[in-house]
Structures
1.
Amino acid sequence: MKPTYLVNVQILRFFAAALVVFAHVGVEVGNVAARTGRSFDEIGLIDWGLGVDVFFVISGFIMYYMMHDRFGAPGAPVDFLRRRLIRIVPLYWICTTLMLAALLAAPQLINNNGLDLKHIVASYTFIPWPRADGELFPILSLGWTLNYEMLFYALFAVALLLPRRAGLTALGALFVLLILAALLAPDRFFLLKFWGNPIIGEFLLGTCAAALFIAGRRLSGAMAVALVVAGIVLAVAFFQASAYEHVWRLVTGGIPAALIVAAAVLGPALRENGLARALALGGDASYALYLTHPFTIKLFGVAGAKVGLPLVAIYAIGFVLTVLVSVGVHLWVEKPIGHWLVRKTASPKRAVRAAS
């Protein structure tokens, strides 16, 4: 990726993950309050899940930007899938295994309705499968977003088999057909209903942003700020009007996210300084932050309640701890495993380039 937008995207990735973490820390603090007989009101200004929408749009942007000149190239789909699996699977499997162990060791601390073998296998293979309560969440419930990511990667790999124009047309057509089929299908076709959720259109919004970037379109600083403000205002307005209850998330979350991502990638690059580098490191660790924060805040919530910490302290310290733990996991677990897998699976020439 080019430095003209690398810092911007990485910082945005951190803030996207932070939105999700902020919401889940609030939920856990609410659980602590309920267990200890205290009262706690979560901050309901916005749908904090907007971070997921931003991630999906960024994913569409990065995948198309990385591969825009490899459509129709021999081996491109296999190489693309290899790199994405190395990036996504190891840490997710580690965290899923930790969650499975936690469910077996301390089920009273985790909201889950039991386990069955089919659900366990589906959780590891990125297949949406109903839990005992009928909800389509994997063992690590956050993994529902990765089920959509894997769908996007699979369809994008198919598109890479074709020349760019035909591939992009095929990709868009596949997404539209999936959405239409899901709208028409009965509820018992739960896999189709899940994968055809209109939220998948957010990946296409990201590819559109990448196409603009590749074409050389840029925004002034003032226009970029205006787009960010517009995205936040729209997100707040949709949430406060409860629009998400009867309007597609592609609209209530996707449009605000697309405006914010467009501002980040098409606007001026942020000046690199200490703060920017620290936030960019948070962006590097954003995937680890997304996957590991439930463990961190759950453990700290239990410890904080035992020593009688005020709820606001559990909230603030817990949030900071999730970030610090994620950076450690990124540097000492995620990166070493990724580098090792790249060397083991790449051709000799690519392995040398990856190592360097």
2.
Amino acid sequence: MPQKKAIEADASAIEEIMRKVHHLEIKAKRLSRESFSGEYHASFKGQGLDFEDFREYQHGDEIRFIDWNVTARMNSPFIRTFREERELTVLIAVDISGSFDFGSKYFSKREIAAEIAAVLAFSAKHNGDKVGLLLFANEPILFLPPAKGSRHTLRLIREVLATQAPNATTNIAGACDFINRTLKRKSLIFLLSDFVDNDFHKKLGTLSQKHETIGIRIFDPVEQELPDVGKVNLLDPETGQERLINTSNANVRMAYNKLNSRRLEALQKAFSKYKIDHINAATDQDYLPLLHHLFKTRSSRHA
């Protein structure tokens, strides 16, 4: 009987995940088609130029594009012509550590991450880009190489919702190293995390030097400031440690708020230093205006 109950529980969990995937598919397809398709296309350019053909040199052409072999054969200067390479390689990297399963109201950070990942994945799909997925916690947990197709995109969404990390701690630096080792070609990286970790800023900078990197910080409002609710047991979801805290103590709240402010200031400085575009999405607010603003800012910069 216990085994039968476990099987039924697993089946129920799978059914719930598939229901969420179907819901996200409908929502993300609509948003990517109606709201983000043009903005995404304008925001993220191709990663280079593809050789197209040769033609005779004309006044004003770039001398550096002259092909000297063809020029010698034809007894007249010829240049190489190129077309813009529109196709991008996109990787959505999602933190699935213990702290990312927290949510104080309607949605957890992971559920918001799954929605954003779905919108990004379908926007990339409509643009003809290849999309991959990295799920990480204290180490890389799952890597789906960039590919095209609806089935691949749906699997990506399902894995964000369903994959569990064997260790709940976070290692953003390790995720950055993995991406740099694995993706040989310059790619567009969306990094979704609460960025509650230590000693990862330099590795984040190295990642941004090799790949175009976008930071998407997802947080819960309760994490911003410690509320005055008396004595509570606080559980660290990543270490499992539990501690009794008197939140009515003004010094305790002040110390927590200062620590949190310093961490966020350091993260902001790292984003600015390495010129990483980013947004801060709360679990209790609509993330769509933030994505719109991100895309519009980038498209105006590229105009």
3.
Amino acid sequence: MKAVTVHAAGDLRIDTVPDPVPGPGEALVRLEWGGICGSDIAYWRSGISGTAVLTEPLILGHEVAGTVVAFGDGGSSIPVGTPVTIHPASIAEGSTLAPELAGRDNLHSKVRYFGSAAFTPHTQGGFSTLRVVRVDQLRALPAGVSTRTASVAEPLGVALHAITRAGSLAGKRVLVNGAGPIGALVVAAAVSAGAATVYASDVAASSLEIAGAMGAHVLINRAQGEALPEDVDVAFEASGVPATVGDVLGATARGGIVVQVGNLPTGNVSVGLGALVSREIDYRGTYRFAGEFDRAIELLAGGLNVEPLLTHEFDLDDALAAFETAADRSTGSSKVLLRLSAETGESSGAGTDSAASTASSKSSEEAL
């Protein structure tokens, strides 16, 4: 089978590797769609994502969906041929979780995750034609949810967990700073949670346009000098840019809540935190998701429209062009998808195919 593998910083390859065989309690999934995440781009560009350092070849990808094609011994209540998405996390042997954190499985001390170099050997990801997974990682897709749409379940779960960390948003004024893929999904999640007004802020007009299509009521273009709103009840900092944190705190009402969604750089950074104290703001972190992965699938089945987010599509063989497009905001990209096998069984709109074709040509000319 084929697999999108990073061998070192700047060294992304389409490798041919043996087809996997499912063992007891495992399923073999033909993967059809995969979404490129910022962590995938980080491994490709630098060999590092957060605190995880690449030390061996790694198949990337943790936002994937496909169809079950076989089971190992023991089978499953899910029949062969079922469209699925895959929960990418596994609690590792020897992991611990304090009793007071019961239910917050994302905070286990040791968690393996698809496409992660946090452990050695690394945990291989899902940007491949086939993947063996534990049966309990499968999530059968409800009627009306395609594998293409379901590839967004993982980042939507991240957005929903950020909303959970903020508490009730019903009737509140909400700011989402940073309208990349996760920020745009936070916008959609906030609207779904009943926020009265959702402000989206970014420096890219194309990202703001997508945030608007995902439900943002007010768009703020910081590159054009537009100011953040005053005294929002809850703010989500989704850009991961340290210089913006002080501004977000300053836009938050006294006694309000700021949730840090975007990953800040590892190591020491300069952040303006004065308003954190003077406004007595509750500054909260958020990490991956707990039960929100399943909630994401429910929302997709309920009609949450993520199409505005899905800006580009590439075949697996064109993975380098896909990564270049996803990493370059000037392309207008948001969530870039890989077709992981020829048998997707789905067709997308002509506009999306056209955008992908144009971007592929441009990126190929600029290939490293």
4.
Amino acid sequence: MDKNKMKYKRLNFLRILQILLFISPLASASKLAIVIDDVGYRQEDYAIYDMPQEVTVSIIPVSPYATERAEKAFEQQRDVLIHQPMQPLSKIKIEDKALEVGMEKPQIQEIMDYARKRVPYAIGLNNHMGSAATADQQLMNYFMEILANEQLFFLDSKTNSKSVAAQTAKSFYIPTLERHVFLDDNNSLADVQRHFDLAVRYAQKNGLAILIGHPRKNSIKVLQQGIKNLPNDVELVKMSSLWRNEKVKISKPLIMFFEMKPAQTSTSNLNNVPLLRGVPKE
């Protein structure tokens, strides 16, 4: 084989290798999981149930419509979480059946029995408030031992940067995740939109973002538009798929065609083959 042919084949191989290296990270999309807290109180809840089934509802056990909302979510094959009230650092009033610092294991078990009854079909639990409770090691030890026996997943809402909840849950071999972005700490439309965009960018950069929001007017508006217009490289996923470490199913393929000469050993009239995903926009 003459030197020109060898050089051509080498260059052709390098071009293909560069393309494959560039595109391969896009074969698996970044993941965005959305959890809506405080479900069970308001008519606005119904707007959440009109969203894709990947959006998870987290229901407060003492809320008046807790069981009804859980049953509706189950009918839709939507993930259901228990949004368990826990003691905050502030003096703000919290719901009944809350976990409080100093509780013993039998008291916690009674609360969990109540929550399981009021929120059927729950696959996991995250904390409602709980900046004091989730930072108390003894309480979390008792709680996670019970949660492990209940075979529930755990999501730390991270209402306190000093939370020991996730670390303790993992020590009991509970599949555990932590919240990355809050959607609506501030209810203004501009801030809610900014936080949604932040969650999308976080997912693109880190491969996963867990976003927690509430069934409020501006939150619903932003979620409806945001979910509809997610970038091609971000997939909305269920919380259960994350806990179970399931692979993302790519649902938005983008076909790309390459204009390059085939190698000398290739057959003529090659068919163009669609890749899983195209190059994302900046």
